[in-house]
Amino acid sequence: MKLALGLLFPTSGQVQVFEQDPQTTEAKRLLGYLPELPYFYSYLTPQEALQFYGSLSKIPPGLLKQRKEEVLGDVGLLIHRSKRVVEFSKGMLQRLGLAQAILHQPKLLILDEPASGLDPLAIKEIRDLITRLNKSGTTVLLSSHSISEVEKICHRVGILIQGRLVRILEQKDWLPEPGSLEQIFVDTIQKQWA
pLDDT tens digits for 83-119? Predict the structure, then answer.
């Protein structure tokens, strides 16, 4: 993820984002990112935070006003849009982080543990939003330790062990039986360590 975001440099090979070097401004325009622990200035409201990030993304003012309302509605924070971030729970910060990540309508959305800190209802709402974004054409790359969430959201899964991709699975590989992705994961890990 950090390679695709241009935060780390490859020691060999190359990484491209839609045929762009991740360091370029053009690549960054195509990306949305939600870290596992999003951070916002505590004195800002969600509206102010999104205004700041939307300005950085050079979203035209009229469109930015519209998008702020849309994404706050999408993540369930519209009624909290005027509260200070300092009053937010971890789950609310996660929602705001997702709103910030999708504000500029990226082609690629990179999510690191998107359900972190969320209650079961919020997890379902965010899962549904991620699914809608994907169906509308946004490519979603997510990292998660919650195999049951991965099983519900993903079309394709890669299993990494010590930073190495050891297996790629298609949805058809785990769909016949709910919970089978977990067993496939465990079997893969055990074979690697044997």
Answer: 999 999 998 999 999 999 999 999 999 999 998 878 8
* pLDDT of res. 94: 93
CA gyration radius for the chain? 18
37-70 per-residue burial string, b: 16 or more CB within 10 A, e: under 16: ebebeeebbbbbbbbebbeebebeeeebeebbee
Residue spans per domain, the chain? 157-194
Contacts of 148 (CB under 8 A, 6+ apart): 179, 182
CA dist., res. 92 & res. 73, Å (int): 13
* Pairwise CA distance, residues 164 & 177, whole Å: 27
What is residue 180's predicted lDDT score, i.e. its pLDDT?
A: 87
pTM: 0.90
Alpha-carbon distance 92 to 77, whole Å? 8
Q: Which helix (H) or strand (E) holds 109?
A: strand 108-112
Query: Could you give the CA distance from residue 137 to residue 131 in angstroms, rounded to a whole number?
Result: 10
Residue 192 is encoded by which pair of tokens?
A: 């690697």
